[in-house]
Amino acid sequence: MSEGDEIIDFKQLYHQSPCGLVSYALKGGRILHANKTLLGWLDVTEHEIRGIHFTELLDRGGRLYYQLFVYPLLRVEQEAKEISFQIITEKTGFACLFSARACLHPGMQDPIVHATIYKVEDRKKYEAELLKRKTLAEEERQKKEDALDEVAFYQSHLVRAPLANILGLVEILEHGRNDQDIRSIIALLKESTGQLDNVIKKIVNKART
Amino acid sequence: MVDVIKRNNVRVIGEGTRTMVLAHGFGCDQNVWRYLINAFKTRFRLVLFDYVGAGQSDLDAYNPVRYNSLDGYAKDIIEILDALNIKATVFVGHSVSSMIGLRASIMRPELFESLIFVTPSPCYINEDDYTGGISKEDLEALLDMMDSNYLGWSGTMAPLIMGNPEKPELSEELNSNFCATDPEIAREFARVTFLSDNRKDLKNVVVPSLTLQCVEDILAPVAVGHYIEKNTPGNTLYVMNASGHCPHLSAPEETVEAISAYLGIN
């Protein structure tokens, strides 16, 4: 026995830990034990929590996530680390980080899961803020990409059409025969330059937004 | 020519005249089959693989258009079987893989001897008088959960997952992250999985099939098993004593017994 063992009261350490501690059967998820920290957070008694299935403490998304990812990890790797869950009960609700190990105990066929639960309310808000910024930045980038695509489309197609008209009309103008022909060609040229001007204005406006 | 063996991290193990393909479900990779591998490796030639985006598959091979429906994954299975020159295999699919196998069997029935569905669902979302088990809100909640849990995956992990044969010491790290997947791909796979509706395909199955359904499975309730049995020609339903969505992990003995009984082996 080392010196530390005499100083540390393990029962007190278990119950007064700054994190929630819970043990449950991996198969079925029935809770066997919880420390006083967790019972206090959940506002339930030891008696009340026994027999509840661990996933009943989670929200619906958390329950699905547990079945899809956490349970297989605990089965195959005997360990799951830093899973972000939302605890929801009739009396309370809080964000937490869940880490767990599945351990085989002598005389028991199926492993017991020992889990720690850390309340992470403030960190969760910070994470949500970061995630929001990331989504916004991605949306902004997508918007810019779409605008650039549109500009490229305008340049290649819409600018080319009136410009091709103008080039053709100038060609005809060079070989113009009489004043009436020239006047009608100038009228067509005005129309095409007007169209070109409009398209360019649209591109400029697009680039500004 | 695409190297499908590398793309899907295909492994062939075991001995036997019959072949059994083990197809993992959404969320993890071929590591989930460890108990079934031990039980069947002396009697079957076992084919294991990771879907593109999962495990140690080639992430660069992920094509959002191809994998926009379960058919992209079904084609991968057909390509794996063709590459290995396998005909008439037993196909065991967990969860979403059941319907992927079913689609593959409709495209190329001659490749399949029988289909074994482990906790399958032809449609996960509840609709009118059909009980799938989850609602659209549940799916959104699940996607939110996935967004806030990358399970050890990060940008710095990507090169590891893509495979690093020159650094074998990394494999240990990889094994402890067998559920780690590129979050974008995982999100898309979740969407394709949980919004898929294969109810109309059930009647077109010509290969005999077995459905293993568990009690208290929030992703695929027993009612879904009854629906499949009623609407699929040649389907047998076996409701297990096991609970949850992963009987091959939680109750491997019962799973092996049920499959063995159906395949006529002892």
Automatic annotation (TrEMBL), chain A:
Keywords: Coiled coil
Residue ranges of coiled coil: 127-157
Domain of life: Bacteria
InterPro entries in UniProt: HisK_dim/P_sf (IPR036097), PAS-like_dom_sf (IPR035965)
Protein name in UniProt: PAS domain-containing protein
GO molecular function: phosphorelay sensor kinase activity
Native organism taxonomy: Bacteria, Pseudomonadati, Bacteroidota, Sphingobacteriia, Sphingobacteriales
From TrEMBL, chain B:
Repressor listed as a keyword: no
Signal peptide: none
Keywords: Hydrolase
GO molecular function, one term: hydrolase activity
Organism domain of life: Bacteria
Domain AB hydrolase-1: 20-258
Keyword Protein biosynthesis on entry: no
Annotated family: Belongs to the AB hydrolase superfamily.
Name assigned to this protein: Alpha/beta hydrolase
Organism: Pararcticibacter amylolyticus
